[in-house]
Amino acid sequence: MNSLIRLSKFSLLIIIALAANSAHGQDKESNNPYAGLPFKDRLFFGGDLGLSFGTITYIRIAPIIGFNVSPKFSVGAGPSYQYYKDNRFIGLESSIYGGSVFGRYFVIENIFLQTEFEVLNLDELYYNPTSDYIPDRVTIPVWFVGAGLSQRTPNGSGFFIGVFYDLIGDINSPYPSDIAVRAGGMISF
C-alpha cells in the first residue's frame, strides 16, 4: 500500500510540475487565451469508450471532466466502468470499477504527452482445494505514461488517440498487456 501512495504522490507531483511549467512566464494577454476566463469556460468534458467482442468480451466506459490550465496543458479526472469476460476460462467474468486522474501536455499543436494514474477494483479468482473458484475483490493501481495525437478545434473540442505504457504492470491488471491504445473525444462549451 505504501508503494501505491508513493506512486500516486509522484504522479500528482508530475502533474503539478507540468502545470507550473506551463503557467510559468506566460503573458496573460498574448500567450494564454484562457487567462481571465471564468472557471466554467476552461472546463471540458469527454472520455473514451472501448469495445471488444469474441473470446474475450471487453466493454469500457470512462467519462472525464478536465480543466484547461493553458493552451498546452490540461488536467482532469473521471470514473470508469469495465465489463470483462474471458470465455477461455469458466467463471472469468468481472465488473471493474475505477477512477483516474491525468495530466496532458501538448508538445506541439496536435501531439501530446500524458500521464494517468488509475485505480481499479475487480474480482480476483483464488483457487480452493475443493476445485471451486472463490471470487474476491482486489484494488490495483495502473500508471500509464504515453503519447498521442489529437485533432482539436479552437475552442478545445475534438478527438484523440494515444498509446500508453503501464509502469506498474500489476499481475491482476485487466489489461491484456502493459501497452494500451485508447481513443476518445472531448467537448468544450
Can you put this structure into words, describing what you see?
- With 189 residues, the chain is mainly beta.
- It has a single domain (2-188), classed as Porin (Beta Barrel), CATH 2.40.160.
- The chain is 12% helix and 58% strand.
- It contains one helix and eight strands; from the N terminus they run αββββββββ.
- Strands 1-2-3-4-5-6-7-8 form an eight-stranded antiparallel β-barrel.
- Strand 5 and strand 6 form a beta hairpin.
- It is elongated and about 60 Å long.
Describe this protein with a few key phrases.
single chain; 189 residues; mainly beta; Porin; eight-stranded antiparallel beta barrel; signal; Outer membrane beta-barrel protein
Total count of domains: 1
Q: What is the spatial order of strands in the main beta sheet?
A: 1-2-3-4-5-6-7-8
Portion of residues in beta strands equals over 45%
What oligomerization state is this entry in? single chain
The helix count comes to: 1
The whole-number mean of residue pLDDT values reads 80
Largest sheet: 8 strands, antiparallel, barrel
Low-confidence stretches: 22-29
| First and last CA, distance | 39 Å
Order of helices and strands: HEEEEEEEE
Q: Which CATH class is shown?
A: Mainly Beta
The CATH architecture is Beta Barrel
Q: Helix content range of the residues, please? A: 10-25%
Structural class: mainly beta
CATH topology: Porin
Rg value: 19 Å
**Looking at the structure, what is the overall shape?**
elongated
Count of strand segments: 8
Keywords: Signal
Protein name: Outer membrane beta-barrel protein
Signal peptide: 1-25
